[in-house]
Amino acid sequence: MIKHIFYLALFSGLAACSTTEKSILSVEEQAENVTTMCSENANAIQQRQESHSLYSRLGERPGIEKFATNLYASHGENPVIGHFFENVPKEPFIKNVTDFVSVHSGGGGSYTQRDMATVHKDLGITLEDFLAAGGDIQTVMADLGQGDNEIQEVICFLVSLAPTVITK
Please, is 60 exposed, middle or buried when counting C-beta atoms within 10 Å of its C-beta (0-12, 13-18, 19+)? Predict the structure, then answer.
């Protein structure tokens, strides 16, 4: 049931971002559904992380780097958010995302690059943009063979960053 709510919420977000037709749920309702799903599953996520780190389940640094590489391409091709990536150099993006996800998924170390608020502050990112990026993340992870739990954990971590990324 939880998995179906998760995918319904993210699918709704993708549908709203990729069509001019009125979606069943507003962008705000879609975001609320994902936030609720994350809140309801916080204990399960914590238990999975304590049992076997997300870092190792993502394939450690090589798996995360492949994710970051594919995410760069996906974001660049996304009609909603692709314009944000027109002047973003590929290699620094891949390295920074790999470092960020590695550290925050249990890989240890520290992230020393610009923080999320600084990176996104002048971009004017909307809730719709944020959901489109989340849809890319879900798709890329699924295409790489990641399981539902891993996708959920990455999405929920990113949802926790929404207040620092959404600036408009």
Answer: middle
